[in-house]
Specification:
This protein is α+β, with helices and mostly antiparallel strands and 288 residues long. Helix content is 22%, strand content 24%. The chain has a single domain, classed as Double-stranded beta-helix (4-Layer Sandwich), CATH 3.60.130.10. The protein binds N-oxalylglycine (OGA) and manganese (II) ion.
Length: 288
């Protein structure tokens, strides 16, 4: 059966209509979904009122799942394949560690040497307004650079920071940041990555890139800032307005994303994510 697709924006994304991802799905149909995933960079599945196990099972079709050993505080105890992104306070009343997850432009797990292939984020609850997620098409951003700039950045590697900047100053944030650093030594990633399946080149930059390997922060910053600003021009961006039971699947190799914090924090925003393991990329640096 042919997939019914509805494009989400000119830049990227498509909705897969009239589908229940918890139903048995043959290889041929999943193959169509996977080809659309490669073509559009992100896929939206609406009205997926499914169980956590069904979310995990569907995600496994995309590849082996990360058990989130590099983010042990953020995964669910009952399902290590599920990473929480929630502002629901902990059982003891303390604020959730993951309430500011994703609040800067990034690609998932770029701070490890096996960055993610893709992620599937499921929405359980969203505030009345706000809390959208932005996605940028990094193939298109790369293609739009001049030949001179492409040549300039060809061999560069960006040193990646892990962790959430916004809570770094709070006490729980300090403990968390120290643990993050211990679990995840600094890693450098190529600024231009060749997509292992489409063969296309994509910019691999974001706000977690602190500096280029072999250069100072001062030297690197203007170019990092330029590339992030370039890649996040509205022309390259899709803004997703969440509904309960949306599942959004994105390709981390050719898109980046950012969670927006423009909502009433007394209202619940609760998401859960599976993360598909990718292929090795980058290297550990001694002097991150
Ligand atoms: C993520 C993430 C964005 C959001 O789950 O990887 O960055 O809007 N989430 O919650
Ligand atoms: Mn993310």
């Amino acid at each position: 059966m042919a997939l019914k697709l509805r494009r989400l924006s000119y830049a990227l994304g498509a909705e897969v209509c009239d589908i229940d991802v918890s139903k048995p799905m043959g290889e041929a149909q999943f193959g169509e979904i996977y080809r659309a995933f490669l073509q559009y960079g992100i896929l939206l599945f609406r009205n997926q009122d499914i169980t956590r196990e069904e979310h995990i099972d569907f995600s496994r079709r995309f590849g082996e799942l990360d058990r989130h050993d590099s983010l042990p505080r953020d995964r669910r105890a009952d399902h290590p394949e599920l990473l929480m992104v929630t502002n629901e306070p902990n059982a003891d009343g303390t604020p959730s560690d993951t309430r500011y997850t994703g609040r800067q432009w990034h690609s998932d797990m770029s701070f490890t040497t096996v960055p993610s292939l893709g992620s599937l984020l499921r929405c359980f609850a969203v505030p009345e307004v706000g809390g959208d997620t932005l996605f940028a098409n990094m193939d298109a951003a790369y293609d739009a650079l001049s030949d001179g700039m492409k040549k300039l950045i060809a061999g560069l590697h960006g040193i990646q920071l892990s962790g959430t900047r916004k809570i770094a100053n709070e006490e729980s944030g300090v403990v968390r940041a120290a643990e993050q650093r211990r679990l995840n030594p600094p890693v450098a990633q190529p600024i231009v990555r060749v997509h292992p399946e489409t063969g296309r080149k994509a910019l691999y930059i974001g706000e977690k890139v602190k500096r280029f390997d072999g250069m100072t922060e001062e030297e690197s910053k203007p170019l990092i800032d330029y590339l992030v600003r370039h890649a996040t021009r509205p022309d390259f961006v899709y803004r997703h307005q969440w509904r309960k039971d949306d599942i959004l699947a994105w390709d981390n190799r050719c898109t980046m994303h950012q969670a927006l914090g423009d909502f009433d924090e007394t209202q619940l925003r609760h998401m859960e994510r599976t993360t598909i393991l990718g292929t090795p990329s980058g290297y550990v640096v001694a002097n991150g």
